[in-house]
Amino acid sequence: KAGVTQTPRYLIKTRGQQVTLSCSPISGHRSVSWYQQTPGQGLQFLFEYFSETQRNKGNFPGRFSGRQFSNSRSEMNVSTLELGDSALYLCASSTGGPGDTQYFGPGTRLTVL
Amino acid sequence: GESVGLHLPTLSVQEGDNSIINCAYSNSASDYFIWYKQESGKGPQFIIDIRSNMDKRQGQRVTVLLNKTVKHLSLQIAATQPGDSAVYFCAENLSDYKLSFGAGTTVTVRA
Description:
The structure holds 2 protein chains of 2 kinds. Chain A is mainly beta. Helix content of chain A is 0%, strand content 53%.
């Protein structure tokens, strides 16, 4: 079974631009979660989607948004990019139960110049 | 999770020795705990998990111990190999669909 895939793997943007990252979950998984990983803050939860509905959200500004499609694929968008948004953005998928194991993709490395 | 007390940000271990990685979690209501391994340039990889109704769980070369009294989690790796060099994270789950991660421990295996 194929793992979680994320595109693109690397991205360079400038301040003020917006960016859209994509995640395809493991086949059969209906939950997709997004995390931001930085050296200073570690791994931080952004949001989680199940059946196209956001069930939980972390403490990030409104510039960070996401959505999920009917095929469980998910996208996250960051608008008005800031230098501090440079990070590894990780997507994880699970079957969707509250204590189900989350499996991670390789991440998208975003650099904001 | 968060890392206080027994947590070490780095661990150097001789190949063939056993490794013990510690983690202190933050929420006594957490009911599910996971250890992940992250190699350079990759996403976190699931190693082993444990529910709050257990205090020990074993996998292949790995054992997780949970002490709910002091909110402490540990990962033991037997016969550490060069391929075990990575950053190890503990994560806790409150059955609210999100994981809270500890700061991570970088394990370096010496030949």
